[in-house]
Amino acid sequence: MSRVRQERCLVMLYFFHIKDEGDTIHDTEGRDFADLTAARAEAIESARELMSQRLLNEGRLGAGRVFEITDERGCTVLTVPFQDALN
Question: In this structure, are residues 63 and 52 in contact, taking their beta carbons and an 8 Å threshold?
Fold first, then answer.
């Protein structure tokens, strides 16, 4: 007799706030990710896209910005400088 093993897929909701000089752009919707590694990968990709857009529109990268990733409780779980997306 074989047993069927069910695994629960836990998904976490993370919010990607952008810190830009003294300002913060708050993410009010958040996004679901399986883990923090996946959230960091998304932050890197999003930073690349945002820097590309800023370079086209304003002639500068904006690499000094930072993603502050928080969980559903509002606790900062990871900080990802846009600069990391250039490496």
Answer: no
| Mean pLDDT in residue range 75-85 | 97
> Two tokens at 36?
């923090």
3: pLDDT strictly greater than 90: no
74-to-45, 49, 86 alpha-carbon distances in Å: 22, 25, 28
Q: Is 41 helix (H, G, I), strand (E, B) or coil?
A: helix
6 phi-psi bin (left φ>0, alpha ψ -120 to 50, beta other): beta
**How far from 56 is each of 6, 51, 64, 67, CA to CA, in Å?**
48, 9, 17, 21
For the chain, domain boundaries: 12-86
